[in-house]
Amino acid sequence: MAEVTLSKVRKSYGAVDIIHGVDLDISDGEFVVLVGPSGCGKSTLLRMIAGLEIITGGDIRIGGRVVNDLDPKDRDIAMVFQNYALYPHMTVGTNMGFSLEHRGASKAQIAERVNWAADILGLSHLLERYPRQLSGGQRQRVAMGRAIVRDPQVFLFDEPLSNLDAKLRVVMRGEIKTLHQKLKTTTIYVTHDQVEAMTMADKIVVLNGGRVEQIGAPLDLYDQPANRFVAGFIGSPAMNFLDGTITSEGFIAPGIVLPLPEAAHGFHGRKAVYGIRPEHFTLHDSGVPAEIVLVEPMGSETQVTMKLGETQVIGVFRERVALLSGATIRVRPDLASLHLFSNNGGQRLI
Amino acid sequence: MKAELSARRQVFLYGLMCVLLIPFVFPTWWMVTSSVKPISDIFAFPPHLVPQNYDWTTYRKVFELQPFVRQYWNSAYIAALVTIGTMIVSSMAGYAFARIRFPFANTIFMIVLLGLLIPAEVTIVPLFQMFLKAGMVNTHWPLILVPIFGAPSVFATFIMRQFFVTLPTELEEAARVDGLGRFTIFRKIALPLAKPALASVAIFTFLHSWNLFLEPIVFLSSADKFTLPQALTQYTDAYGGPMWNIQLAAATLTALPVLMVFIIAQKHFVEGLAHTGLKG
To answer: Is the preceding omega at residue A237 within 30 degrees of 0, hence cis?
Structure first.
């Protein structure tokens, strides 16, 4: 186990900058998720930590040691790839023990470690099979087994669940989290799925365009997003945004005036973005009118697409809303959970 | 209706295949049957598809008139060495062109491929001069070295490169993380996965070397060094006329290993071609 530190890490392909000076401290045993949209540089950053990509600038430290110029094999890391990358011509057992064999471990040591990993991951009965004879979930477990068998200082996961179906993804998510709790090895996990990030991480790093937008605990990011990008990326369904102006009467958006909290008074006259999460609307007679566009009953809750003035937003209600398109309901935003962002740059105002 | 169509289609396809078989099967049949006919029967009119009289002494004469066992061995060991050498050179070169980023890799690959466009007849005289200076004329070295570093190896390199390009890079990255260096990745990961391509390279190369004719007649002059295609031309009478039945008996014996290799390895052969995106 080890801490991982990134200082001003940069990556360029020719004149094109991909990673623009990332700083990141990962504590020993922490589970950190790098999340962001496609092309944000999260996989590149992970590959730079692994040593599969050369860094253009900055320092990467693993366990206090600068590893910028070390080969992947000398960084004491293990990586789980998106497409599993199991060696097709080797059995599960050989796949798992291959790195130990190459590092000169004795047969007894290899067998002991492979059996230990296979026990943890429920693979003991599959050790003689070939990867082609396994299901997607089993292959994923073998890839994890290959990583843990060596007892590395850091685990790196590159979108490991993206090839699995939705149901299996939930199961494997739990297994990876349980494995981390058992082994307590520092883990860096890349995903574009914010639900995976929220459910698995001790700490989330939100990346966009090769820059870190925000680093924090999942619920901190959810409750206090640093900017409009993070607010819109974290949470499903996504946060609603309305453009308008902060005034003494409230927030004037196209076709509607929305209530504001006390804290907004210092910004009167300023153009801003009103951010409200779908679950922070409540049905209330004294609320603002909203015209229903679509009602989607989910069982435990109802998702309602509605128009606040001229802006279409989504509300999620515990109550069952049995109304048709075109009807009007009254909704009240929860002012304690309201977000206001600058309309220029999207930084958080309150 | 559908079943009827399908049956008619099958009859048509089988009929077509039977017609297409004629140019491939008939010469082989004619070679084998003529090898046991007296020479007069070979030219009988109308021709006999099945021999009327059998003359098995032709096979004995094959061995009496030439050092045929020695020549058989020459062809076999030369083809084996060329095949092994070409597999080593082409797999390493193909891997390098597919996987190692080095300056002008694609340009160099194109230049190497251009080697395929130069006919062997164009280079044979300079090659002869070269091997003459090296004291290798009337030895087997030219027949071994020219294919390993010449056009057959270029074609094999092309096949291997096309295969290695299709191997997922993540496999190699996983191997790098597992602690393997470039050559070990090639030997322990890439090469074992390249078996189908290697098999087709082996078959192509073996057949090419076994059938090689121009180079032996240029480089070799003593009968005990001849390879089989060259030896076949030596079954002549006192006036230089071919002794057809003996020649065809020798040809039948010569074709046997080729047929065996192809029958045993045809699955790999087809797989290998499929991997290269080429069609046979």
So the answer is: yes
